Amino acid sequence: MIAILDYRAGNLTSVxxxxxxxxQSYRITADPATLQEASHLIFPGVGAAGxxxxxxxxxxxxxxxxxxxxxxxxxxxICLGTQVIFEHSEEDDTVCLGIIPGYVRRFPENLQHExxxxxxxxxxxxxxxxxxxxxxxxxxxxxxxxxFVHSYYPAxxxxxxxxxxxxxxxxxxxxxxxxxxxxxxxxxEKSGRPGLxxxxxxxxxxxxxxx
Amino acid sequence: xxxxxxxxxxxxxxxxxTKGIKFKNNVDIGDPAEAARQYYEQxxxxxxxxxxxxxxxxxxxxxxxxxxxxxxxxxPFSVGGGIRTVEDMRRVILxxxxxxxxxxxxxxxxLLINEGARAFGKQCIVLGMDVKKVDRSSSIPSGYEVVIHGxxxxxxxxxxxxxxxxxxxxxxxxxxxxxxxxxxxxGYEIELTRLISSNVRIPVIASGGAGKPEHLLYxxxxxxxxxxxxxxMVHYRTYTISEIKTYLHEHxxxxxxxx
Lengths: 211, 259
Fold this sequence. Notes:
The structure holds two protein chains of two kinds.
Chain A: E1 2-5, H1 13-21, E2 26-29, H2 32-37, E3 40-43, H3 49-58, H4 61-71, E4 75-78, H5 80-83, E5 88-89, E6 94-95, E7 102-106, E8 112-113, E9 116-117, E10 122-127, E11 129-130, E12 145-150, E13 152-156, E14 162-168, E15 170-178, E16 181-184, H6 192-204
Parallel strand pairs in A: 1-2, 1-3, 3-4, 4-16, 5-7
Antiparallel strand pairs in A: 5-6, 7-13, 8-9, 10-12, 11-14, 14-15, 15-16
Chain B: E1 5-13, E2 16-17, E3 21-22, E4 28-29, H1 32-42, E5 47-51, H2 56-72, E6 77-80, H3 86-95, E7 99-102, H4 104-108, H5 111-120, E8 125-133, E9 144-148, E10 153-158, H6 159-169, E11 173-178, H7 190-197, E12 204-207, H8 213-221, E13 227-230, H9 232-235, H10 241-250
Helix pairs in contact in B: 1-2, 8-10
């Protein structure tokens, strides 16, 4: 069973619907006992880092997530879920979970591409250049694009963890993986066929077999 | 780099498309969820539904439509029409829509934008604007005026002022519809689109007037739109979404070509 972590950060039903479409059994949950039974954890989320972190601390879900990482069972971060596993986010100057060394930064003002001003949030479909083989990111056509909505981006300290880069005025990390953890800044549940491919790959992944 | 989005727009009344849409076998499709699936498979980047149902029973039917759409397509979609409160928004979002579009209601009560943005995040709130070209005046300095109730009522609000105001209030995106161009199939209002898009920091979806792929090319390049809404030109099978995307791609517009 796949657990979708419910920590009141936005609408989790779209991830659930995608899993349903993929014939996976899942539960949207915040219950530690249910998490223990689960084989995989999806850590989604839309919203602000500050609020998300304070909710995680209040409910002690922050401890549950840290514990999960140590079990070696696969975990997938999506969007805000990916951001809060870093050490710190510039959004609301938030201390985050610190599972991955690195920071979450705001896109700079006056971001440009070929002389044109770029808008923030970065909203819409963009290409991800995958650098490495990884079981979760297997079988994606080269030209695949993914759906993004965000104003902050992950900047891992160790670039060896980066699986895919995206260009939006600057180059940022759109997908990363380390041991039993995979994380994406885009929304696989809203990225059509390649997005569903990533979710299906994740559901089959046993963790820790990266690199 | 970010791709320009091509967004088919479907009008729904009492849970059915207001006009049947013809697909491959030339059979009319009246079910919004089935039409959405066809466009999803043709490469639509997003889908917009406008619910023009009047009755409250019809609203429940629309929630059911949203739920079925959300089970079928895995790209973002928005729902507009008749949304007056945060509670209305919540029902549609929980049923599976990514975004909510508000228009006349936001003009009448601008705080609705703010309430929605705080409850669901800015990215959920699309401000729909119906705009008409008028003579420049002290109250309408841009020469474009906001109209409400489907373009029937003038209220003395400048379109450029309203777009900036909506951004401050927390709108995540603007869907800009030219009443003058709407339904003509003679092309988008390029000047209006360019004016609004270059004066706000949120994405602008151009709407009204699309008849040929060239029209999309102009509005996405000269008009500086981030996305283009299309209706009749695909509903009546004059073009497929994939033909339009191929044309734009060949004319150097950044488009999502793999789906």
